[in-house]
Amino acid sequence: MPDLIIRRLDPTPALIDALASLLVETVAGGGSVSFMHPLSVEKATGFCRAALEAAARGERIVLGAFLDDMLAGTVTLQLALPENQPHRAEIAKMMTRPAFRGRGIASALLREAERLATERGRTLLVLDTAIDGGAAGLYEKHGFVRAGEIPDFALKPQGGLTGTRLYFKRLEPPAA
Predict the structure, then answer these.
(1) What is the C-alpha radius of gyration for the chain, rounded to an integer number of angstroms?
(2) For residue 43, how many other CB atoms are within 10 A of its CB?
(3) Hey, what's the torsion of the CAs at 21, 25, 26, 29, to 10 degrees?
(4) What whole-number distance in Å separates Cα of residue 94 and Cα of residue 77?
(5) Tell me, what's the pLDDT at 174?
(6) Cα–Cα–Cα angle for 142, 143, 149, nearest 5°?
(7) Residue 175 reports pLDDT greater than 90
(8) What is the value of pTM for the model shown?
(9) What digits encode the pLDDT tens for the residues 45-74?
(10) Do 92 and 78 contact (CB within 8 A), yes or no?
(11) Sheet holding 4-8, edge to edge
(12) What is the tens place of the pLDDT at every residue in 131-161?
């Protein structure tokens, strides 16, 4: 496998387009990432532009995993939380192109998100993932603890309800 490169995504037109393409592909494949199928390129592009602009303001970090200059996966570390929660961050929008799944891309993205959270003094990560087709196994493999489940939490991209599993992970504070 070629070298995997993980880096932060900037709000450039090329990266917005690549991220929007990945989002459309994920939703079409049944990924529960807040959108319904069919997801228009225009709607995906608007969301991705806004997400990367929020990253440029320091409200989140959007990471991309690249193989041969192709965006193969992404994850978001949400940092802009209420003032009484400066110690935590949220993992969101974990997506890997179907053609690249099973190669450790999501694991590499998650490790980098955790490293960046720790670097910013965050000691608690939280996330949720769909019960149907979600990435529970990935998160449990990386030490996330299931806090519970909520039934009928959201619509699946092609319709029908799915529950969600809530997870957390405590992080070690950065070494002094």
Answers:
(1) 16
(2) 16
(3) 180
(4) 10
(5) 74
(6) 105
(7) no
(8) 0.96
(9) 999 999 999 999 999 999 999 998 999 999
(10) yes
(11) 4-8, 60-67, 70-78, 88-96, 124-130, 161-170, 145-155
(12) 998 899 999 999 999 999 999 999 999 999 9
CA angle 66, 69, 55 (to 5 degrees): 55
Annotation: CATH topology of 4-170: Aminopeptidase (3.40.630)
State the pLDDT at residue 173.
Answer: 83
* Domain range summary for the chain, segments of one domain joined by +: 4-170
d(CA 140, CA 122): 19
Please give the average per-residue pLDDT across 112-141, as a whole number: 96
Helix, strand, coil shares, percent, the chain, to 5: 30, 35, 35
Sign of the Cα pseudo-torsion (155, 156, 160, 164, in order): negative
CA 128/CA 133 separation, integer angstroms:
12
Element (H, E) at 126: strand 124-130
